[in-house]
Amino acid sequence: MSITDPRVELAQRLGISELPPVRFDSPKHVLTLLAENEYLGDDAIASVIYLADRLAKPILVEGPAGTGKTALARAVADAVAARLIRLQCYEGLDESKALYEWNYRKQLLRIQAGRSEGADSEQWGALEEDIFAEEFMLSRPLLEAITARDPVVLLIDEVDRVELETEALMLEILSEYQVSIPELGTVRARQIPMVFLTSNNTRELSEALKRRCLYLYVGYPSVERERDIILARVPGITQTLAEQIARVVRTLRSLDLKKAPSVSETLDWARTLVILGREEIGDETAAATLHILLKYQTDIERATKELLGPTKPIA
To answer: Do residue 44 and residue 67 come from a single domain?
Structure first.
């Protein structure tokens, strides 16, 4: 029984004559390219990205804030030499900011030009059709991503921040790679972009959105992987210090904190210790620099008691 390539099927539906080659040869190839772009992935990340490329499916990446979800999309874009188009989601995001809006100033100038020419009623009808052409449209990230002719990675960042109504606007793009515009009809993709959606789990996403995506959970890394991330991203750090940092951070994440330290904050702490010339983490150094990792005073106090003991003063 022959197996139809989903990418070929999608390209035929969209009317794309030339299907681009697959971006990754294997999950191992994904890991190699990510590592070359300073992103240390794991087998789960590599497998989902590889399958998303072969199936032409978006990837929904969920997990705590600061675990590298956005950085993953950037690394993939760099790995495949594609342009990253980012839609930063927020409460109140609407169609005019996510998909498209009409260039009202340009339309007004065109109407004024038609008026000066003394257009009759028939010409006014033609003028009305004219001002709703593509040249009068301002493309926003979602439309720009599917109409681009160059390779694109579309990042829809923190999709859980938008309302359900705005989330619904994305469904056609996520499943069909096309947009329906009342004045123009259906605008189909000129190429098939890789699509990443990130979520910090601040609200439950709709089943319709999840159904259209492959799912990837990116949690906090293991001690060993975080140590390797530190070694890869912080020049001049020693293996011993990187190991100590990873273990301290893992201990802090096990505490009942208002905000656990993210991977980016771990890297900030590592860079801080390198700048201070530290080769290991002593009590005084830990107490004096915990504010780099933790952003609430109650968390700093709790961490200090856990790491240094209740009798040690907070710097």
So the answer is: yes
Q: Which structure tokens are listed for 80?
A: 């495949």
Does 1 map to a domain? Answer: no
Q: Same domain, yes or no, for 81 and 144?
A: yes
Q: What is the pTM of this model?
A: 0.84
Same domain membership, residue 114 and residue 181 = no
Boundary (domain end) residue, out of 171, 200, 217: 217
Q: Could you read off the pLDDT of 162-194 as tens digits, one per residue?
A: 988 888 889 988 888 888 887 778 888 888 899
Nearest one of 168, 174, 165 to 92, comparing CA atoms: 165
Considering the domain architecture, whether residues 152 and 203 belong to the same structural domain is answered as yes
